[in-house]
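User: Please fill in residues for this 313-position structure.
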């Protein structure tokens, strides 16, 4: 939902504060003012895990004792699929660089301040990444996929029944040099994996809920066309996008929004132009993006680019 539309609807709020009393007070106030508090949790790791399904419009993050960790966590939360606005808060005045995030003191938190923070002219954040891109960047940095890192945590005896997030964070930082935000993304992935795994078709269907459902026939036609490239194609549903693969290797992705399909394509050393836009910060695991705004946009030109990417894998 565009940010301007969100401010006119019932905002979905996620509260991150280690103090239960503070969370309860903010939750009660915002619900009294008509906002939908989808979750209130004690840590950013919990928020990341819940945020994948809670789809908050705005997240309120208590600074706590470490401003740098709060900013790292805020950046990770800003990369959730729902792309929430993230506010930093504290009971006391906060000094120092806030990483581009807006600060609202706890006594000043109210629905009006949250709606004002979501106005486009108040946004000065860096472009954020999706959670899936965040995880892909971990692989790029460490040479290990999140699943491989999780298996290593088990093999080293860090990830055992009753495991502690602090021990996982410390091990990832020490052995793979991950920053706090990236390490918390692994913690969130571990928590997510503990949930019952839906079958593949259900995981695909989750990308086409609500106003996005009208794009399912267009997506299905795209996948049928791609299957003609070879019998080694498949779709791997992620949390925020669908990976199109050849023999298990990604050559393109599809991200579904309410008004279009965004098709990301790996076409290294191919010039951008016309419909073939540079991917930029939208997703750094592909090089180009094509916006499909109508069924007719799944045409020979798009399929030609996709087939070239398929052939290069």
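Assistant: Residues filled in for all 313 positions:
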């Amino acid at each position: 939902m565009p940010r301007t539309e969100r401010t006119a609807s019932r905002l979905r709020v996620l509260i991150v504060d280690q103090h239960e009393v503070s969370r309860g007070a903010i939750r009660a106030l915002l619900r009294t003012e008509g906002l939908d508090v989808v979750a209130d949790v004690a840590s950013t790791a919990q928020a990341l895990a819940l945020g994948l399904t809670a789809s908050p419009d705005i997240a309120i993050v208590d600074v706590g004792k470490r401003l740098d960790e709060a900013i790292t966590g805020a950046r990770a939360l800003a990369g959730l699929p729902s792309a929430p606005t993230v506010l930093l808060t504290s009971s006391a005045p906060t000094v120092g660089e806030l990483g581009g995030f807006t600060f609202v003191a706890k006594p000043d938190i109210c629905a009006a301040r949250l709606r004002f923070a979501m106005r486009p002219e108040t946004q000065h954040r860096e472009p954020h990444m999706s959670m899936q891109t965040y995880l892909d960047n971990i692989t790029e940095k460490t040479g290990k996929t999140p699943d491989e890192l999780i298996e290593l945590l088990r093999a080293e005896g860090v990830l055992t029944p009753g495991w502690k997030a602090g021990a996982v964070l410390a091990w990832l930082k020490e052995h793979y040099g991950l920053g706090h935000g990236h390490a918390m993304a692994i913690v969130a992935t571990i928590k997510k994996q503990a949930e019952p795994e839906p079958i593949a078709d259900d995981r695909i269907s989750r990308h086409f809920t609500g106003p996005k459902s009208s794009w399912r026939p267009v997506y299905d036609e795209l996948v049928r066309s791609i299957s003609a490239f070879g019998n080694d194609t498949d779709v791997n549903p992620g949390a925020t996008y669908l990976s199109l693969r050849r023999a298990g290797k990604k050559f393109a992705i599809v991200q579904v929004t309410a008004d279009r399909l965004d098709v990301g394509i790996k076409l290294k050393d191919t010039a951008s132009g016309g419909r073939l836009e540079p991917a930029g910060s939208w997703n750094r695991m592909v090089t180009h993006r094509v916006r499909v705004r109508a069924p007719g946009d799944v045409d020979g030109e798009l399929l030609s680019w996709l087939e070239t990417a398929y052939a290069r894998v």
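For context: Residues 1-8, 121-129 have pLDDT under 50 and may be disordered.
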